[in-house]
Amino acid sequence: MADKIKLFVNGEEVEVESGKNLVDAVSAVGIEIPHLCYHPALGADGNCRMCLVGLEEGGPPLVPACKTPAQEGMKVLLDAEHIRKIQHDVMEFELINHPIDCPVCDQAGECKLQDYYMGYDRKDSRMTVPQVTKSKKLDFGGGVVHDQERCIVCGRCVRFLRQITKTGELGIINRTDTARVNIFPGRPIDNRYGLNVVDLCPVGAMTSSDFRFKQRVWFLKKVPSVCHGCAKGCSITIDHNREKYQDDIIYRFRPRLNQQVNGYFMCNDGRLSYRRENEGRLTQFRLGKNERDMLDVITGCNKEIAHSRKTVVLVSPDLSLEQMVSVKALAEKLGATLSGFSDGYIKTGDGDDYLISDDKAANRKGLEILGIDSSRKSFEEAMADAELLINFNNDLSLSYDESGIRSLLGDTRTIACSTHDDELTGQAHFALAISSYSEYAGTVINCDNVLQHFTKAVTKNNELPDVCAIAAELGSPLQNAGQAYAELQRAIGALSEYQPADIPAEGLNLNDSEAANVTA
Amino acid sequence: MGAKVKTIARRGSTLQERIFLIEIFKGMATTFGHFWRNLLDNSKLYVRHYPEVKPEIPVRWRGRHRLTSHEDGSVKCVACFMCQTNCPAQCIQIQAGERLDGKAEKMPVSFNIDLLECIYCGYCVEACPLDAIRMDTGIYSVTGKDRESFNMGIDDLLAKQGAFTEEDYKKGGA
Ligand code: SF4
Ligand code: SF4
Ligand code: SF4
Ligand code: SF4
Ligand code: FES
């Protein structure tokens, strides 16, 4: 914990952390200093002047809060007449040439200009000369659409691409009225984090071609979750909505601040992985090729399990810890071999040294901690004489090619519990639809040993059972999520003092807790 | 123009009235009097001859909706969803898409109002920043044979013109 210092805001004493600038220091105690160009991840640029505050004694009378470190005994003025006038004047200045596209602007509802206009301006425009017009709807590449008229030239996007991705695709060209953000001719935004500029832009100048016009943001329900796109497990917000007479679907993923994992950002692939939650889903229960009632299929599976002399249970490295312990308990009960073989989930060389990981599995650390064997050798040995394979959503097509799968399966009967309706699921003797990670609550551990809990976001019209429920139906002694979590607490010592709801939003770093590395 | 008010004294306490029978015949005489008079000449009826005679609709009457259009006939609506957001009955369903004719960036791909759910409050008209939706068609009676026919689509909404001149509409307080 950083040291605390005391300073005064509008004459009232507040205690804040030292070593921060004024904007961040006082926002931690709930006081807002309006700011446009400053972003904690990009540092202070000092170009917008929205954050000007007064200092009562010592130093200059007026300072930009984003560039001023909080100091002991400082007397900050925020609500004085002249500060309000400055805030109003800066807003008026920002809006001189602003097109007020709000009705057609995707940012409306989460726009800093709208918020600050309502908070600090609230005056009609005094402009009598025609506004400066600029280009609209420019395709900047990488799924980013730019509107130069809405841009307030805060430089956040430019700084992101220079400081964070170090690709520098954007620049600010010209000065004053003719200043615009643009790409260099023939060099579109081309990096795997480019879509973050859409979140960073405080106004609607950067929009995402993927999300464009799909929903107004105030209709979206926002639920914190964890991205399952790779082993990094970035903290995200799932924005979903059920339109009238339609199903609940996801409209976008956005990064959620987590200093332990992803900071303020996430990669493009992860951001767009929401589509897989909406599309290509398995929603039926099938006996062979025929759609049946869930109970019929489960009964069939249970008969099959009873007849099988050797059963192999395969789990996906994407399952939550709760689901893994349920399946593990099931395998022990059936005397089956349990495997987490998923070499195909690792795309060697795909990762980088920032967020993207080679491993596309969300919870491989979970397999390790629970002691689930994931080696190719033991899985293939077990499959050699297996009569039945129960596959909990492990996508074998990532690990084997077509002929490989054929020789692996031979005449083994298969029960496929699957979120997606792919070819392998189509060939399975039994197919059971299960819910995916946006539709259940669970816990996963990322590649850096940070354990995060996520809650259920989406409720489909036709709700599917999750892996825990299916495992319970197939005979797992852990009959509900509560029992699975209790078992999990036994396996992971660090969890013993936490109920799921108490796990901190930024997760638990298991490296910090001694207890984590024992047991199981 | 105030209505004429006629005060009728409460009656019913005299003996003759309390026998009832006499009063019943007197009442029947009045009834049959009206009956024969209306049968022979109905021009003096006290009620409107609906549906042969239609009522006059004032400009501010909230009738069935329509979507207004630009001079070239293209839709004015920019799919901002203000009306859908403001609608207390949640009976407006819009889908937005790119607009390519240069008039705006965005336009409705589909625009549905379910008139069976609409409560004709006019909040949608008030919310619209572009005067793109109005309830000035003068249509006060919406009838149909099945539920689907009450779900107005974008083409239905664009097809109908306003029932009043622009000048009168503006005078009506819009
Ligand atoms: S950037 Fe903000 S103020 Fe400007 S048009 Fe978009 S929503 Fe409106
Ligand atoms: S596009 Fe957005 S982030 Fe970039 S300079 Fe303009 S307002 Fe700032
Ligand atoms: S009149 Fe009222 S209920 Fe009907 S569509 Fe408009 S806002 Fe909705
Ligand atoms: S409020 Fe007006 S412009 Fe906006 S969607 Fe409704 S009709 Fe269209
Ligand atoms: S936020 Fe301080 S000058 Fe822009």
UniProtKB/TrEMBL annotation, chain A:
Chain ranges of the 4Fe-4S His(Cys)3-ligated-type domain: 82-121
Cofactor: [2Fe-2S] cluster; [4Fe-4S] cluster
Keyword terms, alphabetized: 2Fe-2S, 4Fe-4S, Iron, Iron-sulfur, Membrane, Metal-binding, NAD, Translocase
GO CC annotation terms, alphabetical: membrane
Database matches in SMART domains: NADH-G_4Fe-4S_3 (SM00929)
Domain of life the protein comes from: Bacteria
Record-annotated 4Fe-4S Mo/W bis-MGD-type domain positions: 220-281
Domain 2Fe-2S ferredoxin-type: 3-82
Annotated localization: Membrane
Molecular function GO labels: 2 iron, 2 sulfur cluster binding; 4 iron, 4 sulfur cluster binding; metal ion binding; NADH dehydrogenase (ubiquinone) activity; oxidoreductase activity
Cross-referenced InterPro entries: 2Fe-2S_ferredoxin-like_sf, 2Fe-2S_ferredoxin-type, Mopterin_OxRdtase_4Fe-4S_dom, NADH_UbQ_OxRdtase_75kDa_su_CS, NADH_UbQ_OxRdtase_ferredoxin, NADH_UbQ_OxRdtase_Gsu_4Fe4S-bd, Prok_molybdopt-oxidoreductase
Coiled coil: none
GO biological process, one term: ATP synthesis coupled electron transport
SUPFAM superfamilies named among the record's database cross-references: 2Fe-2S ferredoxin-like (SSF54292), 4Fe-4S ferredoxins (SSF54862), Formate dehydrogenase/DMSO reductase, domains 1-3 (SSF53706)
Family per similarity comment: Belongs to the complex I 75 kDa subunit family.
Protein's recorded name: NADH dehydrogenase subunit G
Annotated source species: Desulforhopalus singaporensis
TrEMBL record, chain B:
SUPFAM superfamilies in the cross-refs: 4Fe-4S ferredoxins (SSF54862)
Enzyme superclass (EC): translocase
Principal location listed in the UniProt entry: membrane
InterPro entries per UniProt: 4Fe4S_Fe-S-bd (IPR017896), 4Fe4S_Fe_S_CS (IPR017900), NADH_quinone_OxRdtase_chainI (IPR010226)
Highest taxon of source: Bacteria
Entry protein name: NADH-quinone oxidoreductase subunit I
Catalytic activity: a quinone + NADH + 5 H(+)(in) = a quinol + NAD(+) + 4 H(+)(out)
Cofactor (UniProt): [4Fe-4S] cluster
Subunit structure: NDH-1 is composed of 14 different subunits. Subunits NuoA, H, J, K, L, M, N constitute the membrane sector of the complex.
Organism listed in the record: Desulforhopalus singaporensis
Ligand binding ([4Fe-4S] cluster 2): C87, C118, C121, C124
Keywords: 4Fe-4S, Cell membrane, Iron, Iron-sulfur, Membrane, Metal-binding, NAD, Quinone, Repeat, Translocase, Ubiquinone
Gene Ontology molecular function: any one: quinone binding
Details of cofactor binding: Binds 2 [4Fe-4S] clusters per subunit.
E.C. number(s) listed in UniProt: 7.1.1.-
Binding residue positions for [4Fe-4S] cluster 1: C77, C80, C83, C128
Domain 4Fe-4S ferredoxin-type: 67-97, 109-138
Subcellular location: Cell membrane
